[in-house]
Design goal:
heterodimer; A: alpha+beta; Glutaredoxin; 7 helices; 47% helix; elongated; B: alpha/beta; Rossmann fold; Ubiquitin-like (UB roll); 5-stranded mixed beta sheet; 24 helices; 42% helix; globular; iron-sulfur (chain A); metal-binding (chain A); iron-sulfur cluster binding (chain A)
Amino acid sequence: MSDNSEILGEIIARHHHREGPLLPILNDVQEELGCVDAESEALIAKGLNLSRADVHGVVTFYHDYLPTPDARPHVQICRAEACKARGVEKLIDTASSAAGERVRISTVYCLGLCSAGPAARTGDDLHIRLDEQAITNLVENA
Amino acid sequence: MTLVRISDDALARAGGADRLADAFAKKGCEVHRTSSWGMHWLEPMVEIDGKGFGPATLDDVDAILDGTSDKSIGVIEDHPFIATQTRITFKRAGKTRPLSLEDYEATGGWAGLKRARQIGPEKIVEEVKHSGLRGRGGAGFPTGIKWDTVMKAEGPQKYIVCNADEGDSGTFADRMAMEGDPFALIEGMAIAGEAVGATQGYIYLRSEYPDAIRKLNAALELCTDIIAPFKCEVRVGAGAYVCGEETSLLNSLEGKRGEVRAKPPLPALEGFLGKPTVVNNVLSLQAVPHILNEGGADEYKDAGFGRSRGTMPIQLAGNIKHGGLYEVGFGVTLDDLVNQIGGGTASGRPVKAVQVGGPLGAYIHPDQFDIQFDYEEFTASEALIGHGGITVFDDTADMLEMARFAMEFCSVESCGKCTPCRIGAVRGVEILDRIREGGRKRDRIELAPQMHNAPKDKGRDAGDEIGLLTDLCETMKFGSLCALGGFTPYPVMSALRQWPEDFTRNPELVEQALPENAG
């Protein structure tokens, strides 16, 4: 077993007293370990006195949790209606080819910047009014 | 020293407001980071002595300071976009620093809570009922009646849950409210707690809003003593759209899969952890402090139209020239909103369609733009106000593609509880693909002589596929527990009805296949 159990124990202890502690725990695990893998699921299940199936069911329900870590930089591009209306679909190929294998591109539905799309997010940074040039720069510098 | 005000709203920051603020600070100005006025096409906007400049870049700093900038829009409060609004929920927008308790108190903050504590639960609920406030999350259920139910429910522990899972595309009012005036939301929740006898509140906030999470956490820390004994905590979601549905949100808050619950039991009686719970949208709670001010309920009520009382923070989004937040009393027409206030499309091309109410709202044709903003009137036209987001599309939009996206979105975000939503949405995407192809020929296996029971005809044409789509939409509409499966047919069918030429070269097929025309 890896040495994540200490970190996991700490995260579980941090939220154990809350009402409905599972999501806060999973958010922190994803944030600190980069994924919620089977080992984490087992430890969390034990810590909260749940079955592993219960925890696995929750983990797989939400889009934010990854089963394996992905260390690549991550660019989320909004492809919901408002950004579509502002032409995001024309940028997707450009973004993908700029990203290659180095950057992880994923789709997000709405960053709440709908009056100034196309919009994207890298980490906690947001970007608006993207055009081909801007999205290429964004992906290349991610 | 010159006082410069620049918004620290996420949209302004995404447009470079932080760098701009640094540049002004370097020039020796005092910089205040305020909330956003909501004129998004001008963000990042710089405000000096009430006058605005935008959209500003680093190159404009010198010109703005020496008064020669060509980006001046004059006095902000006199700008037609602002001057024609009735700002109640967003009364502090652009005017205060979001995390300044001093600014909040100076603009009437906490007065509603103080008065609420004096008049007691019965009277609070009475006033909220009197104001006519209806849930701003989409369903439009009267807030006062919900509070009344929870107030009268028996139980040692009750909860206030704020639904801040604003996932609809084209909406950002919750985000702006939480980032720009976080104390007002907290005050609204504390008042709700006072009314129904709850001491614990939760704000369920989506993970896509990092700025709002940061600001609300900071705000809660600053005002712990003021709202005590009421306690409140931010809970961050994990990227599931369906968790904006209230029962799904409650499951998620409890740490379960965000699956929808059947109602009854109503959350008001058996909500979070089975206890009586008020679940309200951000905008509903944000309006409460104003309503609880002396005479606030009357003032709020007077702003409305028909049975829709008060103001609606409308969000102008998508391909629109003047996008942003426009709070106004109900009754304004779509034409005014899109063509007058919004200034038409950003691309300069003609408006083809607008979608009101997010991904589950119907597409509305410019022919119907005389429709007034009012819950009942929208319902009568098979459209919905939802969260008040208006997404504008120009004539390059392909409505078949948008209908397909509605189905695709539903299939990605379905919680999986109801079969018509979980499977129907996937089939919907497939049918729309086949409509684009002009139908479906029988395949090799079906045509093989061994397949005795398979029909050996020419297959289905586009008209048959449209008939299937119509059937499927009926099934989803009536066979799903929540609005995701139940309302996805609205954008699909409204697109099909009004832009049949985008679906097939022979629009008559659509005509014949629609249920009102079928034998």
